[in-house]
Amino acid sequence: FNSSDWRGDLLGDDQRWVYGVPPPGNANFAWVQHFLHHLAPMGLAGFVLANGSMSSNQSGEGEIRKAIIEADLVDCMVVLPGQLFYSTPIPVCLWFLARNKKNGRFRDRRGETLFIDARKLGTMIDRVHRELTDDDLAQIAGTYHAWRGDKDAGQYEDVLGFCKAANLDEVRKHGHVLTPGRYVGAEAAEDDGEPFEDKMKRLIATLREQQAEAAKLDAAIAANLKELGYGR
Q1: Which residues form the domain of 209?
Q2: Whose CB among 67, 97, 135, 150 lies 3.0–4.6 Å from 145's, allowing a Cys bridge?
């Protein structure tokens, strides 16, 4: 993804560019339309792209994305956590496109798109690399399968901070941006049951203790410097 040397200037009249001519400086929407061009009448496609593809408005990319959305081809968007790859730390997203959302294989999903924010999933396996566990993958796949109506996949429900089924009007209100975080909302903070006034008193008391300890350390450092001949 993000290829800038794909010689797009030589393909301006290519028959694949049904939804707009991709900019010569970035091949992301050339790939998207290449997949769509070869998609069977009842076909589904899934692929990885850089996160910028969900929101970029540069060089006509926003208009191409808008046309694809208005054609009701976007089935599901998944944003993944960063640090998944050894070759690049760039965070990526998954696009799932459906040529026909009423194809008889699953439920009728016309006018709907599922958004999944999986940025909090995964486990750090070393200082710079994250790995999605089998449970993480099952959670993402299971959510998508339940939403589209796979047999025995269970009942789908929106989960605040993780997944949201949005209709086309909602996507329009967000300017045809496909970033899941705009739709799923923020996960509700867990209430620890401590009254606000009590919590503030406790935090202020802790702050006072830390300030007093810091003053003692400053005094000790000043005394040591003085013994070494660097004090006032």
Answers
A1: 192-232
A2: 150
